[in-house]
Amino acid sequence: MVEVQRAVAEELDRLAPVIDELGRRFADAGHELALVGGPVRDAMLGRRHTDLDFTTSARPEETERLLKGWADALWDVGREFGTIGCRRGEWQVEITTYRAESYDPTSRKPEVSYGDDLAGDLSRRDFTVNAMAVRLPGREIEDPYGGVVDLAHRVIRTPGAPEDSFSDDPLRMMRAARFAAQLGFEVDDSVVEAMTAMAERIDIISAERVRDELVKLVTAPWPRRGLTLLVRTGLAERVLPELPALALERDEHHRHKDVYEHTLTVLEQAIDLEHRLGGEPDFVSRFAALMHDVGKPRTRRFLDDGTVTFHHHDVVGAKMTRKRMKALRFSNEQIAQVGLLVELHLRFHGYGSGEWTDAAVRRYVRDAGDQLERLHILTRADCTTRNRRKAQRLQRTYDDLERRIEQLAAQEELDAIRPDLDGNQIQQLLGIGPGREVGEAYRFLLDLRLDRGPLGEDLAAEALRAWWSARSGPPLPGGATIGQDAPTRRAYP
Ligand code: ATP
Ligand code: MG
């Protein structure tokens, strides 16, 4: 607890340039202002942000007036929900008027009405760890629902009964899973029970709001936590049914792996390879890992000899993935990227132990296009065998494929290099017709280009003339030339 207090005090000192000035401005105008939600929670966890949320007794017009002259830029796209946003230096600030909204359980959006006190505002927030505030400018901590204790126990709880909270706004069920994934916290049993009982209520929430929570969950540090919770409570069945469908019943001989468990492992292995993309959480490669095998349940066939096949699950899965992402209103770009990765995730298995021709390697690169690096990640992550030798063999084979891609790329870059002058220009400059000498001159210019980089036409022409006269000596009347093996020059100007 003492540690938490110290962490908060330190963080508030760091935020002083913003919170002290804003706190005084609002107080001088007779309004309350408090830092609230995420930044308070994260201050206690020792996480730092530059975007800060505040709550205030001031109405949006008041807030706007008080921010003018302080902020570098101001926006009011959230005005309808009571929010005014602004930027000052590196700080992003959002100030929302105290809420006392009444929800219509059948509508998709909360109806906004303003409240007059901080306590009422905090009681309407989603979880206890998000329902803490720091009053400004005095810096008194308000924690009416035991958020600090829950934070210490690393647990997600609602301030009141979870059923009431989720009736007010069913999106909070998704948010519980999202925060479990972001914070690595447990979700309290009472909350899990309410999520399970009320899962179908998520249907009234717009696809865009569900998608935004899903993206935050998937790009969080512990996505497995959030995803297994969605599956366990039945929420996944409604928002991403392809995922629970992967938990195929095992055949009695346990001949095929649990595809659901395999998928979660592939996701985690893909996360471990994100350093290849710069290290930031990458939604596209994570979601591709999550969806790569969704075609399996639909393509599963049991053969007479007892084996199982999943023919074309890549193509079927890509189609299912695109359909799901469209329903969740993802951008066309993201749909195309994830769909392509799912479609190509098996291609490498035709590589055998390196039997692909150069043409096949080129086709792999061309088909992956700008998703090649992510395809490398997905294909490498898609190996969860416990057989170490098999895993190492696959890894080495993929190393080999990547090496060949690099070699081909380097060769093709070389092949693409052209001299500064083309054949026609050579003929014109030297006054010769087509023939062997044009080829020699071309190779001379190409060597020159490789040695010295691009020269431009004038310098190249000069070098070409010098080479030509050194090579052939001064032209002699009658068309003869001096030289060891004087070439036959067909024409003179
Ligand atoms: P991030 O901005 O990284 O997504 P955050 O913790 O700031 O994380 P937001 O979704 O921005 O979360 O919400 C800000 C605060 O507003 C939360 O901490 C919570 O108190 C409150 N809040 C947001 N959405 C809801 C909701 N649907 N129901 C109740 N309270 C909410
Ligand atoms: Mg926020």
Report the β-strand fraction as a percent range. 5-15%
Radius of gyration: 33 Å
Largest sheet: 7 strands, mixed
Number of helices: 22
Q: What secondary-structure arrangement, pairings included, does this model have?
A:
Layout lengths: L1 H27 L4 E4 L1 H7 L6 E6 L3 H8 L5 E3 L7 E6 L2 E7 L20 H6 L9 E4 L3 E3 L4 H7 L1 E2 L5 H7 L2 H13 L2 E2 L1 H10 L8 H12 L4 H11 L1 H5 L19 H14 L10 H9 L4 H4 L1 E2 L5 E2 L3 H15 L4 H13 L13 H11 L3 H10 L6 H28 L7 H8 L5 H17 L4 H16 L21
The site of magnesium ion has 2 residues, from loops.
Commentary on this structure:
The protein has 493 residues and is an alpha+beta fold. It folds into four domains: 1-150, 2-Layer Sandwich (Beta Polymerase, domain 2), CATH 3.30.460.10; 154-240, Hydrophobic Seed Protein; 264-416, no CATH class; 423-490, no CATH class. The protein is 52% helix and 8% strand. The strands form three sheets. It has a seven-stranded mixed beta sheet. Strands 8-9 form a two-stranded parallel ribbon. Strand 3 (73-75) and strand 4 (83-88) form a beta hairpin. Helix 12 runs antiparallel to helix 13 (283-291). It is extended, with a radius of gyration of 33 Å. The model is unreliable at 477-493 (pLDDT under 50). The structure holds adenosine-5'-triphosphate and magnesium ion. Adenosine-5'-triphosphate is lined by residues 37-38, 53, 125-126, 130, 169, 171-172, 216.
